[in-house]
Amino acid sequence: MTISVWILKIFREPSPLYKKIYVSFVSWLLIVVLIRLSAFTPRIHSLDYSNSNFKVLGLNIPTNLQFAGEKVPQNDYEIKESLEKEFFANKTWKNSSVSLFVKAQKWFPLIEPILKKEGVPDDFKYVAMIESHLSNVVSPMGAAGFWQLMPVTAQHYGLIVNNEVDERLDVEKSTYVACKHFKDAYRYFQNWTLAAAAYNVGIGGIQNALKKQNTNNYYDLLLNKETGSFIYRILAFKTLLSDPEHFGVKSKIKKGSFPAFKMIKVDSSITLLTTFAKYMGTNVVTLKTFNPWIIGDKLNNPDHHPFIFKIPKNQNIDLSTYFNDVFPQSLSTDSVTIHGKSDTLKLLVDSLQHNRAPKNL
After folding, report:
1. Where does a domain end: 247, 278, 298?
2. Would you place residue 346 in the very low, low, confident or very high pLDDT band (cuts 50, 70, 90)?
3. Positive or negative CA dihedral for 342, 343, 348, 350?
4. Are residues 24 and 119 both part of a single domain?
5. What is the pLDDT at residue 71?
6. Among candidates 160, 163, 142, which has minimal Cα distance to 296?
7. One domain, residues 269 and 228
8. What's the distance, CA 84 to chain centroid?
9. Quick check: is 252 in a domain?
10. Would you call 318 exposed, middle or buried from its count of C-beta atoms within 10 A (0-12, 13-18, 19+)?
């Protein structure tokens, strides 16, 4: 008996037996259909086959990078990634590139001869650039000046740091101290790259890292984030300022010279700086701008220590360009302190704003 005849018979002879057979058949048919649908329905999954990795390491990185005559290896993934980050991902310094060129043109002529005289490679001038952007900033940790010297370090190398005098703010003196630090580190490591890194984390810090990681190469070290990127950042600044066209920047550092000065040695106390400035044939604005190391309105000098004051020979020099660098974070008309230690800043700022000498000189 065919299935069609059998089904017909069920409908023609609706006996209880046939009804039972019919219900069983329909149920079986439904089960078969459900099984087949389940077996052949495509499974929904969350796998994503798209590729969002568009990083091309080494793109537009100079192939002949050197720091202080020491070649930078670029055959390593991590090195290329670190260079890529500082050259292209870090936009802070590129956004202020115009300001950096102006500062470099202004202050490098003062720093470069000292580096040369002390036998320190010229590339170390970029350390000051990344430490302070060539400004006498004071860090939350207490480091100060172009070279961000800590008080203990400055005093160790012979600088005076007290309530009236902070020679870390003297660009020339602090540059000489930085050179001493670089040379001490070089004598220990016999490597300028490690000497530069030691400026950031200390000679002991680099020494311990080299020993623990069994290497003598900065580029092999795993260091903290700041020290680990220190040399790469120097290289980025060096490339920007020495080869700006590499980044499509048209600015260039023009050859310039630092203003000529007459030097005045003082080994006595100064009771009032404004009176002293007038006696020297200048004003307190000029005196403070080119001698920012004196942070009070007077100078107690019972030991008769010889201090050298710089007075520009050109009295018509534009002071504002230098003033903003030596007192960068303190310029405020409602402030009366320079780094919290002088009551003359309000007078200085007022005089600069009105392009005149301060009153009461």
Report:
1. 247
2. very low
3. positive
4. no
5. 92
6. 163
7. no
8. 15
9. no
10. exposed
pLDDT tens digits for range 138-193: 988 899 999 999 999 999 999 999 999 999 999 999 999 999 999 999 999 999 99
Range of 35's domain?
Answer: 3-40
Rounded to the nearest angstrom, the gap between the alpha carbon of residue 66 and the centroid of all alpha carbons in its chain is 19
Q: Does one domain contain both 235 and 347?
A: no
């950031």: which residue's tokens?
200
121 and 176 fall within a common domain: yes
Overall domain count for the chain: 3
Buried/exposed 34-67: b ≥16 CB within 10 Å, e otherwise:
eeeeeeeeeeeeeeeeeeeeeeeeeeebeeebeb
Instruction: Give the span between the Cα atoms of 116 and 182, in whole angstroms.
Output: 13
Q: Is the pLDDT of residue 309 over 50?
A: yes
Q: Looking at the whole model, is its pTM more than 0.70?
A: yes
pLDDT for position 80: 78
Instruction: Convert the pLDDT of each residue in 224-280 to its tens digit.
Output: 888 888 999 899 888 888 887 776 666 666 666 788 999 999 999 999 999 999 999
Dihedral over Cα of 151, 111, 306, 320: its sign? negative
In the prediction, which pLDDT does 182 show?
Answer: 98
The tokens of 110 are what? 């003062």
pLDDT exceeds 60 at position 97 = yes
The verdict on 136 and 98 lying in the same domain is yes
Name the amino acid, one letter, at 249. V
Residues 94 and 17 in one domain: no
pLDDT at 19 over 70: no
* Alpha helices (H) along the chain: 3-12, 16-40, 77-84, 92-95, 97-118, 125-132, 151-156, 171-189, 192-201, 203-213, 225-242, 273-279, 284-290, 320-326, 345-353
197 and 266 together in one domain: no
Q: Tell me: do 28 and 114 sit in the same domain.
A: no
Asked whether residue 56 is domain-assigned, the answer is: no
Q: Which two tokens stand for residue 239?
A: 């490339």
What's the CATH number where 161 sits?
A: 1.10.530.10
Would 23 be classed as within a structural domain? Answer: yes
- pLDDT of 46: 52
